[in-house]
Please model this.
Amino acid sequence: MSLQNNVLLTVAEGATGWELIEKSFWPMVEGAIKFTIPLTLISFTLGLIIALITAVMRLSNSKILRAPAIIYVSAIRGTPLLVQLFIVFYGMPSIGLTIDPFPSAVIAFSLNVGAYASEIIRASISSIPKGQWEAGYSVGMTYRTTLRRIILPQASRVSIPPLSNSFISLVKDTSLASLILVAELFRRAQEIAARTYEFMIIYVEAAVLYWVVCFLLSIGQEALERRLDRYIAK
Model:
């Protein structure tokens, strides 16, 4: 029997009330540290890379570049995240490609974040006055150099609040990974609840843990926004 199952069985042995909360706390925190947080960080980082590439493709004058970006964003935004997870984990083996639960979750979440974040980045870039582009061209910069040195630094500040919200939402969305056997926070809560039959206590405890993580992230978001505001003329 695995160490995880031993811990869960220990939790299940006659514990009720506060005793149950105390015994179930660390298994759920362990799930958050080992899976929920890494899954969030990896997926969001890869998603931002995908989002930036997609946003630039959508802003391109080339139809060859715009078309696949538009189709990708439309497909991801038009289908549920849970369906996307199931396609990657349960659907891929039918075409001979079997992926473990954690990498499957990373792929699905990254693609999902990439589509939504690309629209945020695209809107942020579009919000920069055209005069900034002209200023770059006037000193001999190319399109790529102007985008990298003038436009993206300004657009990044505009995109911080909505991207931070997406990051916080992703923390909560990782609970869906429990359905493809990733032993993250909510999966641990499900296993403990199934053994103890104390569904209300365990699920409320899981909700509080998610809330604490999101609350701490929101504090970090506010601190980052205040820091960026220091560089803006008032």
